[in-house]
Protein backbone atom coordinates (compact mmCIF):
# COMPACT_ATOMS: atom_id res chain seq x y z
CA UNK A 1 0.00 0.00 0.00
CA UNK A 2 1.06 3.59 -0.54
CA UNK A 3 1.40 5.62 2.68
CA UNK A 4 -1.65 7.80 2.00
CA UNK A 5 -3.73 4.69 1.28
CA UNK A 6 -2.45 3.03 4.45
CA UNK A 7 -3.19 6.00 6.70
CA UNK A 8 -6.63 6.51 5.20
CA UNK A 9 -7.60 2.86 5.51
CA UNK A 10 -6.21 2.63 9.03
CA UNK A 11 -8.27 5.60 10.12
CA UNK A 12 -11.41 3.96 8.75
CA UNK A 13 -10.70 0.58 10.32
CA UNK A 14 -10.20 -1.02 6.92
CA UNK A 15 -7.66 -3.64 5.90
CA UNK A 16 -4.01 -2.53 5.92
CA UNK A 17 -0.72 -4.35 5.40
CA UNK A 18 1.12 -2.94 8.45
CA UNK A 19 1.01 -0.21 11.05
CA UNK A 20 2.04 3.26 9.91
CA UNK A 21 5.68 3.94 10.80
CA UNK A 22 7.60 7.21 10.97
CA UNK A 23 11.23 7.22 12.04
CA UNK A 24 11.33 11.00 12.42
CA UNK A 25 14.05 11.78 9.91
CA UNK A 26 15.27 15.35 10.20
CA UNK A 27 18.80 16.24 9.25
CA UNK A 28 19.71 12.57 8.80
CA UNK A 29 18.31 13.21 5.33
CA UNK A 30 21.48 15.18 4.55
CA UNK A 31 23.46 11.96 4.87
CA UNK A 32 21.16 10.20 2.41
CA UNK A 33 22.22 12.51 -0.41
CA UNK A 34 25.77 13.13 0.86
CA UNK A 35 25.54 16.83 1.73
CA UNK A 36 26.34 18.80 4.87
CA UNK A 37 23.53 19.97 7.13
CA UNK A 38 24.62 23.59 6.77
CA UNK A 39 23.87 23.43 3.06
CA UNK A 40 20.14 23.30 3.83
CA UNK A 41 20.15 26.94 4.88
CA UNK A 42 18.38 29.01 2.26
CA UNK A 43 18.05 26.06 -0.10
CA UNK A 44 14.51 24.74 -0.41
CA UNK A 45 15.23 22.47 -3.38
CA UNK A 46 18.06 20.75 -1.48
CA UNK A 47 15.88 20.22 1.61
CA UNK A 48 13.21 18.70 -0.62
CA UNK A 49 15.73 16.53 -2.46
CA UNK A 50 17.07 15.14 0.81
CA UNK A 51 13.69 14.44 2.40
CA UNK A 52 12.34 12.87 -0.78
CA UNK A 53 15.43 10.67 -1.09
CA UNK A 54 15.16 9.58 2.55
CA UNK A 55 11.51 8.66 2.11
CA UNK A 56 12.27 6.71 -1.05
CA UNK A 57 15.16 4.88 0.62
CA UNK A 58 13.33 3.78 3.78
CA UNK A 59 9.66 3.76 2.76
CA UNK A 60 8.12 5.36 5.84
CA UNK A 61 4.71 6.98 5.97
CA UNK A 62 5.10 10.77 6.34
CA UNK A 63 7.58 13.24 4.84
CA UNK A 64 8.31 16.00 7.35
CA UNK A 65 10.04 19.16 6.17
CA UNK A 66 12.18 20.20 9.13
CA UNK A 67 15.72 21.37 9.83
CA UNK A 68 15.58 23.01 13.28
CA UNK A 69 13.24 24.65 15.79
CA UNK A 70 14.31 28.22 15.10
CA UNK A 71 12.98 29.07 11.65
CA UNK A 72 10.06 31.15 12.94
CA UNK A 73 12.07 32.91 15.67
CA UNK A 74 14.81 33.73 13.16
CA UNK A 75 12.21 35.18 10.82
CA UNK A 76 11.15 37.40 13.74
CA UNK A 77 14.67 38.63 14.48
CA UNK A 78 16.44 35.96 16.52
CA UNK A 79 20.03 35.15 15.60
CA UNK A 80 20.59 31.52 14.67
CA UNK A 81 24.00 29.90 14.21
CA UNK A 82 24.39 27.41 11.40
CA UNK A 83 27.38 25.10 11.91
CA UNK A 84 28.81 23.61 8.76
CA UNK A 85 27.54 20.12 9.44
CA UNK A 86 25.41 20.16 12.59
CA UNK A 87 21.88 21.22 13.45
CA UNK A 88 21.44 24.96 13.90
CA UNK A 89 21.12 26.46 17.37
CA UNK A 90 19.93 29.72 18.88
CA UNK A 91 22.78 32.21 19.18
CA UNK A 92 20.83 35.22 20.45
CA UNK A 93 17.15 35.97 21.10
CA UNK A 94 15.26 38.48 19.00
CA UNK A 95 15.38 41.11 21.75
CA UNK A 96 17.64 41.57 24.77
CA UNK A 97 15.70 44.46 26.28
CA UNK A 98 12.05 44.01 27.19
CA UNK A 99 11.53 47.69 26.48
CA UNK A 100 11.72 46.60 22.84
CA UNK A 101 8.91 44.07 23.18
CA UNK A 102 6.58 46.11 21.01
CA UNK A 103 9.10 45.98 18.17
CA UNK A 104 8.43 42.29 17.65
CA UNK A 105 6.26 41.68 14.62
CA UNK A 106 4.75 38.47 13.20
CA UNK A 107 6.80 36.94 10.42
CA UNK A 108 5.72 36.83 6.80
CA UNK A 109 6.32 33.20 5.76
CA UNK A 110 6.69 34.22 2.12
CA UNK A 111 9.39 36.79 2.82
CA UNK A 112 11.17 36.46 6.16
CA UNK A 113 14.15 34.35 7.14
CA UNK A 114 14.27 30.77 5.93
CA UNK A 115 10.50 30.29 6.00
CA UNK A 116 10.15 30.87 2.23
CA UNK A 117 12.77 28.19 1.58
CA UNK A 118 10.95 25.69 3.77
CA UNK A 119 7.74 26.48 1.93
CA UNK A 120 9.56 25.92 -1.34
CA UNK A 121 10.73 22.52 -0.07
CA UNK A 122 7.18 21.64 0.97
CA UNK A 123 5.84 22.64 -2.44
CA UNK A 124 8.42 20.52 -4.26
CA UNK A 125 7.69 17.48 -2.08
CA UNK A 126 3.95 17.86 -2.57
CA UNK A 127 4.34 18.25 -6.32
CA UNK A 128 6.58 15.18 -6.53
CA UNK A 129 4.90 12.83 -4.09
CA UNK A 130 1.75 14.42 -2.72
CA UNK A 131 -0.54 11.82 -4.26
CA UNK A 132 1.47 9.03 -2.61
CA UNK A 133 2.57 10.19 0.83
CA UNK A 134 1.52 12.85 3.33
CA UNK A 135 3.83 15.87 3.49
CA UNK A 136 4.01 17.93 6.67
CA UNK A 137 5.68 21.19 7.55
CA UNK A 138 7.06 21.56 11.07
CA UNK A 139 5.74 24.46 13.15
CA UNK A 140 7.33 25.54 16.42
CA UNK A 141 4.39 26.28 18.73
CA UNK A 142 3.74 29.70 20.28
CA UNK A 143 5.15 29.19 23.78
CA UNK A 144 8.36 27.56 22.57
CA UNK A 145 8.83 30.20 19.90
CA UNK A 146 8.27 32.88 22.56
CA UNK A 147 11.21 31.46 24.53
CA UNK A 148 13.45 31.97 21.51
CA UNK A 149 12.38 35.60 21.18
CA UNK A 150 13.60 36.61 24.65
CA UNK A 151 15.60 33.62 25.89
CA UNK A 152 14.46 30.75 28.10
CA UNK A 153 15.76 32.25 31.35
CA UNK A 154 14.03 35.56 30.72
CA UNK A 155 10.78 33.82 29.84
CA UNK A 156 10.94 31.77 33.05
CA UNK A 157 11.34 34.95 35.08
CA UNK A 158 8.52 36.68 33.23
CA UNK A 159 6.13 33.83 33.96
CA UNK A 160 6.61 34.47 37.66
CA UNK A 161 6.86 38.27 37.72
CA UNK A 162 5.32 39.71 34.55
CA UNK A 163 2.92 37.16 33.07
CA UNK A 164 1.26 39.77 30.86
CA UNK A 165 4.50 40.05 28.87
CA UNK A 166 4.56 36.29 28.35
CA UNK A 167 1.07 36.49 26.90
CA UNK A 168 2.15 39.30 24.60
CA UNK A 169 5.06 37.18 23.38
CA UNK A 170 2.77 34.22 22.84
CA UNK A 171 0.27 36.35 20.95
CA UNK A 172 2.83 37.59 18.45
CA UNK A 173 4.27 34.08 18.15
CA UNK A 174 0.79 32.69 17.57
CA UNK A 175 0.23 35.12 14.71
CA UNK A 176 3.44 33.88 13.07
CA UNK A 177 2.27 30.29 13.61
CA UNK A 178 -1.13 31.02 12.06
CA UNK A 179 0.42 32.67 9.03
CA UNK A 180 2.90 29.84 8.55
CA UNK A 181 0.22 27.17 9.06
CA UNK A 182 -1.94 28.83 6.40
CA UNK A 183 1.01 28.92 3.99
CA UNK A 184 1.82 25.24 4.63
CA UNK A 185 -1.79 24.25 3.98
CA UNK A 186 -1.94 26.42 0.87
CA UNK A 187 1.15 24.54 -0.36
CA UNK A 188 -0.80 21.28 -0.09
CA UNK A 189 0.73 19.98 3.14
CA UNK A 190 -0.30 19.61 6.78
CA UNK A 191 1.24 21.46 9.75
CA UNK A 192 3.05 19.28 12.29
CA UNK A 193 3.34 20.90 15.70
CA UNK A 194 6.29 20.74 18.07
CA UNK A 195 6.46 22.45 21.45
CA UNK A 196 9.64 21.49 23.25
CA UNK A 197 9.52 24.18 25.95
CA UNK A 198 5.99 23.19 27.01
CA UNK A 199 7.34 19.92 28.41
CA UNK A 200 6.70 19.15 32.07
CA UNK A 201 10.46 18.66 32.23
CA UNK A 202 10.74 22.44 31.68
CA UNK A 203 7.57 24.10 33.05
CA UNK A 204 4.87 23.02 35.48
CA UNK A 205 1.49 21.71 34.32
CA UNK A 206 -0.08 24.84 35.80
CA UNK A 207 2.22 27.04 33.72
CA UNK A 208 1.42 24.96 30.66
CA UNK A 209 -2.28 25.51 31.13
CA UNK A 210 -1.81 29.24 31.68
CA UNK A 211 0.77 30.14 29.08
CA UNK A 212 0.78 27.44 26.39
CA UNK A 213 -2.60 25.75 26.23
CA UNK A 214 -4.69 28.79 25.13
CA UNK A 215 -2.41 29.46 22.17
CA UNK A 216 -2.12 25.81 21.19
CA UNK A 217 -5.90 25.57 21.15
CA UNK A 218 -6.28 28.61 18.92
CA UNK A 219 -3.63 27.25 16.55
CA UNK A 220 -5.23 23.82 16.34
CA UNK A 221 -8.71 25.31 15.95
CA UNK A 222 -7.35 27.21 12.95
CA UNK A 223 -5.80 24.06 11.46
CA UNK A 224 -9.03 22.12 11.97
CA UNK A 225 -10.93 24.96 10.36
CA UNK A 226 -8.81 24.41 7.26
CA UNK A 227 -9.82 20.75 7.18
CA UNK A 228 -6.55 19.36 8.50
CA UNK A 229 -5.69 17.21 11.52
CA UNK A 230 -3.06 18.18 14.08
CA UNK A 231 -0.24 16.07 15.48
CA UNK A 232 1.37 17.56 18.58
CA UNK A 233 4.83 16.64 19.84
CA UNK A 234 6.04 17.82 23.24
CA UNK A 235 9.42 16.55 24.37
CA UNK A 236 10.25 14.94 27.69
CA UNK A 237 7.75 14.16 30.43
CA UNK A 238 4.16 14.91 29.45
CA UNK A 239 1.93 12.54 31.45
CA UNK A 240 0.57 15.36 33.63
CA UNK A 241 -0.51 17.39 30.58
CA UNK A 242 -1.91 14.70 28.28
CA UNK A 243 -5.46 15.72 29.16
CA UNK A 244 -4.62 19.35 28.34
CA UNK A 245 -2.97 18.35 25.06
CA UNK A 246 -6.18 16.57 24.09
CA UNK A 247 -8.19 19.57 25.26
CA UNK A 248 -6.08 21.75 22.97
CA UNK A 249 -7.40 19.75 20.04
CA UNK A 250 -4.58 17.38 19.12
CA UNK A 251 -5.69 14.49 16.94
CA UNK A 252 -2.45 12.61 17.53
CA UNK A 253 0.00 12.83 20.43
CA UNK A 254 3.64 12.22 19.57
CA UNK A 255 5.05 10.68 22.75
CA UNK A 256 8.68 11.16 23.73
CA UNK A 257 10.73 8.21 25.00
CA UNK A 258 10.63 9.76 28.50
CA UNK A 259 6.90 8.98 28.64
CA UNK A 260 5.02 5.67 28.63
CA UNK A 261 2.92 4.58 25.67
CA UNK A 262 1.04 2.19 27.94
CA UNK A 263 0.11 4.98 30.35
CA UNK A 264 -0.84 7.28 27.48
CA UNK A 265 -3.05 4.57 25.99
CA UNK A 266 -4.88 4.11 29.27
CA UNK A 267 -5.19 7.85 29.91
CA UNK A 268 -6.19 9.29 26.53
CA UNK A 269 -6.13 6.48 23.98
CA UNK A 270 -9.90 6.50 23.61
CA UNK A 271 -9.67 10.05 22.23
CA UNK A 272 -6.40 10.42 20.31
CA UNK A 273 -4.03 8.44 18.17
CA UNK A 274 -0.59 7.87 19.69
CA UNK A 275 2.75 8.14 17.96
CA UNK A 276 6.10 7.02 19.33
CA UNK A 277 8.28 6.31 21.13
CA UNK A 278 11.54 4.49 20.33
CA UNK A 279 14.54 6.24 21.89
CA UNK A 280 16.20 8.35 19.16
CA UNK A 281 19.63 8.40 20.80
CA UNK A 282 20.14 5.33 23.02
CA UNK A 283 18.45 2.98 20.53
CA UNK A 284 18.31 4.53 17.06
CA UNK A 285 21.71 6.26 17.16
CA UNK A 286 23.77 4.12 19.51
CA UNK A 287 22.05 0.74 19.28
CA UNK A 288 22.36 -2.15 16.88
CA UNK A 289 19.69 -3.30 14.43
CA UNK A 290 18.84 -6.00 16.97
CA UNK A 291 18.32 -3.32 19.62
CA UNK A 292 16.06 -1.43 17.23
CA UNK A 293 14.02 -4.54 16.51
CA UNK A 294 13.52 -5.22 20.23
CA UNK A 295 12.52 -1.62 20.93
CA UNK A 296 10.15 -1.54 17.96
CA UNK A 297 8.46 -4.76 19.04
CA UNK A 298 8.12 -3.38 22.57
CA UNK A 299 6.50 -0.23 21.22
CA UNK A 300 4.03 -2.25 19.16
CA UNK A 301 3.19 -4.55 22.09
CA UNK A 302 2.46 -1.55 24.28
CA UNK A 303 0.12 0.34 22.03
CA UNK A 304 -0.96 -1.59 18.92
CA UNK A 305 -4.37 -1.91 20.57
CA UNK A 306 -4.74 1.79 21.31
CA UNK A 307 -8.40 2.50 20.51
CA UNK A 308 -7.56 5.46 18.26
CA UNK A 309 -4.55 3.79 16.68
CA UNK A 310 -0.76 3.88 16.77
CA UNK A 311 1.94 5.27 14.53
CA UNK A 312 5.21 3.53 15.32
CA UNK A 313 7.87 6.22 15.52
CA UNK A 314 10.98 7.50 17.18
CA UNK A 315 10.39 9.50 20.35
CA UNK A 316 11.77 12.64 18.72
CA UNK A 317 13.73 13.66 15.63
CA UNK A 318 16.60 11.31 14.86
CA UNK A 319 20.17 12.51 15.42
CA UNK A 320 21.93 13.37 12.18
CA UNK A 321 24.34 10.41 12.36
CA UNK A 322 21.68 7.75 12.95
CA UNK A 323 22.85 4.63 11.07
CA UNK A 324 20.79 3.85 8.00
CA UNK A 325 20.70 0.18 9.02
CA UNK A 326 18.87 1.12 12.21
CA UNK A 327 16.21 3.11 10.37
CA UNK A 328 15.81 0.17 8.00
CA UNK A 329 15.51 -2.19 10.99
CA UNK A 330 12.59 -0.21 12.38
CA UNK A 331 10.79 -0.35 9.05
CA UNK A 332 11.57 -4.04 8.53
CA UNK A 333 10.24 -4.93 11.98
CA UNK A 334 6.94 -3.15 11.40
CA UNK A 335 6.58 -4.87 8.03
CA UNK A 336 7.35 -8.26 9.54
CA UNK A 337 4.78 -7.85 12.31
CA UNK A 338 2.12 -6.83 9.80
CA UNK A 339 -1.52 -6.14 10.63
CA UNK A 340 -3.21 -7.60 12.57
CA UNK A 341 0.05 -7.89 14.46
CA UNK A 342 1.89 -11.23 14.54
CA UNK A 343 4.66 -11.41 17.13
TrEMBL record:
Matching SUPFAM superfamilies: UROD/MetE-like
Any one GO molecular function term: uroporphyrinogen decarboxylase activity
InterPro entries according to UniProt: Methanogen_methyltrans, UROD/MetE-like_sf, Uroporphyrinogen_deCOase
Pfam families, alphabetized: URO-D (PF01208)
Domain Uroporphyrinogen decarboxylase (URO-D) as annotated: residue spans: 4-336
Superkingdom: Bacteria
GO process annotations (BP): methylation; porphyrin-containing compound biosynthetic process
Gene3D superfamilies in UniProt: 3.20.20.210
This protein's UniProt keywords: Methyltransferase, Transferase
Name by which UniProt lists this protein: Cob(I)amide methyltransferase, putative
Species of provenance: Geotalea daltonii (strain DSM 22248 / JCM 15807 / FRC-32) (Geobacter daltonii)
